[in-house]
């Protein structure tokens, strides 16, 4: 499946919940590699009193990118709930366009290990994450 076809498939349904709040836009999906890249709008409403985006929002962006990468890897026939996630925040992030990347590092029959990265608007690496998730058959399959 091409990146364009995967993105069309993802865009078939309107975003829900946290995805809508985060304002994500899919940029690249490589199903064969298990990779996804998405842009998010870091908004002023996400900031602490110091003017930097709260870490939970940054984690959510990477979590979604990693889940998309894993779902694409399984041809979108599975949902991928996160079992555990560890995030490292490398620098404070101000509002603006942010890029999250997710990648499958190892996939078993039921468990998948993922890696995520978040880039600030200027391209600096702002956060990284690793996650363990589970493949569950999608309810629409």
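^ structure tokens above, recovered residues below v
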């Amino acid at each position: 499946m091409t990146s364009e076809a995967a993105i069309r498939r993802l865009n078939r349904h309107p975003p829900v919940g946290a995805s809508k709040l985060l304002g994500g836009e899919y940029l690249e999906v490589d199903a064969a590699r298990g990779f996804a890249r998405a842009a998010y709008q870091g908004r002023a409403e996400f900031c602490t009193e110091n003017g930097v985006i709260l870490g939970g929002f940054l984690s959510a962006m990477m979590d979604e990118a990693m889940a998309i990468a894993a779902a694409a890897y399984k041809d979108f026939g599975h949902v991928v709930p996160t079992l555990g996630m560890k995030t490292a925040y490398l620098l404070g992030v101000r509002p603006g366009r942010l890029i999250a990347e997710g990648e499958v590092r190892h996939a078993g029959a039921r468990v998948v290990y993922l890696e995520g990265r978040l880039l600030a608007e200027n391209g600096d690496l702002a956060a990284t994450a690793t996650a363990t998730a589970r493949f569950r058959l999608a309810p629409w399959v």
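The longest strand covers residues 96-107.
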